[in-house]
Structure formats: C-alpha cells, structure tokens
Amino acid sequence: MSENSRPKGTPRFPEGPTPDPTGSQFERRIRSFTPRRSRVTTAQGDALRRLWQVWGLDIDGKEVLDLPALFQQPGTPRPQASRPVVLEIGFGMGEATAQMAAADPDTDILAVDVHTPGQGNLLNLAERNGLTNVRVANGDAVVLLRDMLAPESLDGVRVYFPDPWPKARHNKRRLIQPEFLSLLAPRLKPGGLLHCATDWEPYAEHMMEVLSAHPDFENTRPDGEFAPRPDFRPLTRFEGQGLRKGHVVHDLLFRRAVTLTEHAEAGTGTAAASQDPLDPAGD
Ligand SMILES: C[S@@+](CC[C@H](N)C(=O)[O-])C[C@H]1O[C@@H](n2cnc3c(N)ncnc32)[C@H](O)[C@@H]1O
C-alpha cells in the first residue's frame, strides 16, 4: 500500500517500529530531538517490514533488557560468556554503525535512534552484510538508559555528531549534559569508554567542560585534551557534511571511573525508577 492510500490512523509499518513507543510526547521533558516525519524509501520500508521483528526493539520503557538474550542468534543456544556490548546513540543512517559492526564481529552494538528511514537503512545494511551483532532500537536513548539498561551492562557508549542545537535558547537540548552523564555512568562498566565526536566547536568545548568536570569520568588523554580520531571510528555521514563546510572535528574519549560517586549511584534506575535525573522535579 502506498503512503498516500493508507487510511488515516493506521500504523505506517504494522510489523515495524512503533511511533513514540513510550508515549513520551506526553512527558514534559526537554528532548534532544524533535519528532520528524521523513520519507521512507521502498527498500527501507521493506527492511522495516521484514526485519524489525528479528532485529528491532521498541524503547517502551517496560522492562530491563536481557542483553545476551537480545543478541542471541535465533536457533542457537545462549552464549556461555557474555560478549561486549556497546551502545551507539543517534546512528543516523547507520552506515558507520554497519562498518564498525563488520570490523568487530565480537562486539555487539545496540544502536538507537528515533529516525525511521535510518532504522530501515541500518536493517538493510545489516542483512546485506550478514551482520548478526547489531540490534536497532527505536525511541529516546534517555528512556533506554533510564528504564531498560541494567547497571554496568555496557562496555562502551558512542555518541557521534549529536545534534548541535547551535542557537543559545536551544543549548539545553544538547544530549551531553551533566545530568545525562550521571544517568549514563552507572550503566557503563568500570573503565568503560564513552566516545563522543562533534564538528561543532562550541559543542566540543561544552562536552569537554562537562565531561572533565564530572566525577565519574576520566579523560583517557593524560594531557586532558581532545583525542585523535581512533582508527575504529569510520567517517560518518554528518561528519562528511561538516568537513565539506570546513568544520574541524573533535573526538573525546573518556572512561568511567572505577568507583562511582554517590550521586551517580543514586541515578541507577530500574524499570520502576520514579526519579528521572533529567527531570529531578518530576515535571
Ligand atoms: C546529527 S545526527 C548524527 C547521525 C550520525 N551519528 C552521523 O554522524 O551521521 C544525530 C542523530 O541523533 C538522533 N538523536 C538525537 N537525540 C536522540 C535521542 N535522545 N535518542 C535517540 N536518538 C537521538 C537524531 O534522530 C539523529 O539521527
């Protein structure tokens, strides 16, 4: 059925990702994205219909994920030893995600975005390249971290070219904020790597400021500076656009401290957690 002939109110992809899976448009909370309705190509739509039930995950905030079960191959026994899991927040069209998954098949990548065409694209890339170590999560990464990821369940977190929100009145929408880091730290294993990259100079400075000031993160660079781009990070789509505009790219590589401060431990949420560190007043 074409987009235009679909009756009003019927889901776009009945077997695919649920629009706004937590009903979060009703939560009064500052978000790092704005919902957008973008065109989905035939190939992306086809991938969403066929592959979502196998490799997709709606962030509905209902339960803490069993990550080994999520990454278990259908028809195979549950792996004996747990494999490393890296969370990628905001994968966009997923090309870099697919490249990293192919380059490191022993690491599982939980890739999250709200962008439907990108979800279809990444599913397509995973199928075409025989990648079994990628799962595509639909929804807000904040809800995923807050309600669905167990303490110390992640080996790493990647945030590549997050929306820069350049206007001063929108700066509060930037994902990398002290409260977000306090939510993230307990879900990372001790020593787990948080890797951020941006081509927006003021955001790079902001990231450096909040990460350096946060007691639960340590810069992997002894000089406290930005890191050279590590070999494992491919060029991303947004990075390419930034470079064409003459922007300079900054990478930040911080690791989680071995011992957390009390503040971060208090932020360790469960599915039933009532306090949102991004909304401590509950409004
Ligand atoms: C500027 S794009 C960068 C995409 C990709 N990493 C790249 O470099 O090409 C930022 C992406 O983050 C996603 N995003 C922003 N906030 C998010 C959130 N809270 N949860 C999930 N995805 C988010 C947006 O939908 C968008 O696709």
Structure in words:
The chain is an alpha/beta fold and 283 residues long. The protein has a single domain, classed as 3-Layer(aba) Sandwich (Rossmann fold). Helix content is 29%, strand content 17%. The protein has nine helices and eight strands. The chain has helices at 42-55, 67-71, 95-103, 116-128, 141-148, 178-184, 201-213, 237-244, 262-266, and strands at residues 56-58, 85-89, 108-113, 134-138, 154-160, 188-198, 217-219, 250-256. Strands 1-4-3-2-5-6-8-7 form an eight-stranded mixed sheet, sandwiched between helices. The protein is globular. 41% of the residues are buried. Residues 265-283 have low confidence and may be disordered. Bound molecules: S-adenosylmethionine. S-adenosylmethionine is lined by residues 32-33, 89-92, 112-115, 118, 140-142, 160-163, 175, 236-239.
Brief digest:
Helix 4 links the parallel strand 3 and strand 4.
How many β-strands, per DSSP?
A: 8
CATH class: Alpha Beta
Largest sheet: 8 strands, mixed
Fourth-level CATH superfamily: Vaccinia Virus protein VP39
Low-confidence stretches: 265-283
| N-to-C SSE string, H for helix and E for strand | HEHEHEHEHEHEHEHEH
Quaternary organisation: single chain
CATH topology: Rossmann fold
Distance N terminus to C terminus?
A: 41 Å
How large is the share of residues in beta strands?
Answer: 15-25%
- The rough form would be described as globular
Q: What value does the average pLDDT take? A: 90
How much helix is in the residues? 25-40%
